[in-house]
Structure formats: C-alpha cells, structure tokens
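Hi there, hope your week has been kind to you so far. Do you reckon you could talk me through the fold, stretch by stretch? I've dropped the whole record in just underneath, so have a look:
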Amino acid sequence: MKNIEMKTYKSKIDVWFVVLFFMMMLLPTIFTLIDMFSWTMVVLEGLLLLLVSILLFNTKYIIEGEYLYVKCGFLPKEKCSISQIVKIKNTRSIISAPAISLDRIEIKLNNRQRLIISPLDKKEFINHLCLINPNIIVE
C-alpha cells in the first residue's frame, strides 16, 4: 500500500432529496401551527431543522493514510481500513446510508460488511482508494 496524503471528499447532494425531506418535516408543523400556534413548537421545529441540516450538509468522506473515515454531522466518525475493501460498484440503493444522493457507490469489505456513500467526485474518490489498495475491484 502506498501512503497517500489526506483528502476530504464532500457528499453529493440531490436537491430534490433535501426539498422532499424538509417538506416532510415542515408540512405537519405548519398545519399544527395554523391550528394552534405555540412558540415552543416553533423553537423545537427550528432546533430539529438545525440538527438535520448539520447532518445533511456536513457529510463527508475522509481518506487519511490507510483509512477511510465517514463523517456525518455531529455523529462519531466511522472508520474503515482501505486494505479491507474488496469491491466498489455503483448503486442507486435507497437503503439508509451516510449519503445525500441516490448517485451512490457501494463499498464491499472482506468481512462481508458494506458501506454505501455518495462522494461528489466518485471517479476521483475511487481512484484515490485504488492508489492505496490496487487490489480493489471496480465494477
């Protein structure tokens, strides 16, 4: 394995996904506020929107040394050894994942685990992983 410099890759963001998500959160609140206004409800909804925004807009993938870190907002980083990556393939899976786009890649590890992410520049990201572990099969 070659020692390659650290690089951070932002998650691709599908605008329709973000709009749909916020609409699903806001519509019930708007109807509730019209029926019975409450400042408590406004503050709680604002805090919830802030927390979700931090998760959505602060999702990134970091390649540092021989490790891939997945960072999603304020949640702890997920760490994956690049030497354990067996295969990478494109996917449009809707499974819950640290990805804000359906233009995703599935990373299969040798322990049968998989990681689904959506780096903005998939080609550069995959090339970077392959520089560190040239045994990765890319489909």
Summary: Helices lie at 15-35, 39-57, 122-132. The chain has three helices and eight strands. The radius of gyration is 18 Å.
